[in-house]
Amino acid sequence: MEYFTTSEMAKKWNILRRGVSLLCSQNRIEGAVLKGNVWLIPNNVKKPEDPRQVRKIG
Questions:
Q1: Is 48 contained in some domain?
Q2: Which domain of life is it from (predicted)?
Q3: pTM to 2 decimals?
Q4: Percent of the chain, pLDDT > 90?
């Protein structure tokens, strides 16, 4: 299995690196592991949904 760093995932998901680190520390990215001070994220994981986004109905 191939892993990406927070910087690589930030580019892929078009969000800040700090945001990816925060998602990892909150256990919202399945399979992310902390090795030393670097988060390793599986390359096939999907970006978690942002609960702050409001969806308009109708």
A1: no
A2: Bacteria
A3: 0.82
A4: 79
Q: Residue 44: CB partners within 8 Å, gap ≥ 6?
A: 1
CA angle 17, 1, 9 (to 5 degrees): 15
- Total of domains in the chain: 1
Distance CA(25)–CA(43), nearest Å, equals: 17
C-alpha to C-alpha distance for 41 and 56, rounded to whole angstroms? 32
Q: Residue 19's domain spans which residues?
A: 3-42
DSSP string, 2-57: -EE-HHHHHHHHTS-HHHHHHHHHTT-STT-EEETTEEEEETTPPPPP-TTPPPP-
Question: Residue 44 and residue 52: Cα distance in Å, rounded?
Answer: 24
